[in-house]
Amino acid sequence: MKSYFKLARHEGNRMLFDLVEMSIISTYCGEAFHLHAEGVRGAGKTTIMRAARDILPKIRRIKDCIYNCDPENPHCPVHRHLGTEEIQSLGIEEIPMPFLEISHSAKVGTVAGSIDLAKITDQVKPQAALLPGIIPQAHRGILFIDEINRLADTSPEITDILLDVMGNKPGRLQIEEAGLPVVEIPITVSVWAASNPDEEPGPLEEVRRQLSDRFDMVYYMGRAGSVEVVAQMLLSTRKTKTGVDAEEVNSANAEYRKKIVEMARMYEVAEMPDYLRDFIARMYVKHNLESLRAVEAIQQGAILYSVLHKRKQVTISDVIDMVPLALKHRVDGDTFLKVTNSLTYESPRKRILNLLGRKQETGEAGSAG
Prior knowledge:
Rossmann fold; Helicase, Ruva Protein, domain 3; alpha/beta; two-stranded antiparallel sheet; 14% strand; 11 strands
């Protein structure tokens, strides 16, 4: 697989790179940020998302905890009742942030959890226990689903599980097995998905609108539009086949991880100015938007976007850039156009020049009178 930092960036995919890095920053800080990349087959959606595994930072967990318990906030059935000293005695370790995938052949037990057959058949000390599935093992990390529109169409049970996991932040997962007590655990996982809306069964918002609404941002990825970019992509593919410089790749990935941790620290203290929060709230009320998740996503996205671009404060342009990504899958076409047309952005410099121009015209009109 191509290294993340070697992937070609162009106008059609640049925002997806930004969204992926924003989601990693947010996930590292303990807050999910769900992404859905749409686009034609072969555009590179899944390539970018899977390659991002290279730049995932390390997280601290209780040693050998398959649920990835944070030592400062244990949540799993095994560790959530332990005190600080007991956790310290178990030990703490660093692991790469989890990155797991749900395949279309996955079963409910594989995704959520099932009976641990190894423990129940232990001849020395048999015991009934649960084996956590893909989702609880992805806690504090990334969960990737390719062709999510097809999964939503063919696996309604798994879709229902995703609705619970993505419904709130943190989400909720309930594991049920006959003969065992029901286990409910909080889950913080960022779901990344990819799909081609032009292929069967169609766009996710038409297949399962509830699931589509759970994604904070949906981005339609465009093709590379210049000869230079396509040529660069071909060269990169050729170099990958003939071998890569492992030292260069490791160094670049380490630098990415370092930057992500630094930006995560910025995000933890970043705030949305009141006037911008009021701006988002007015948009919600004025256009009668149904989903409160939409404006929550705009706020979270704008803060992350400003941090990614190393701005000390969120700007109106950060908010405006997030609006189409948060709304296109949640509102009808007419509402989308009304909202976006009402958000034409002028730079502060342009507004000042326009104001000066109007004052000058008023002064000249007064003199003429």
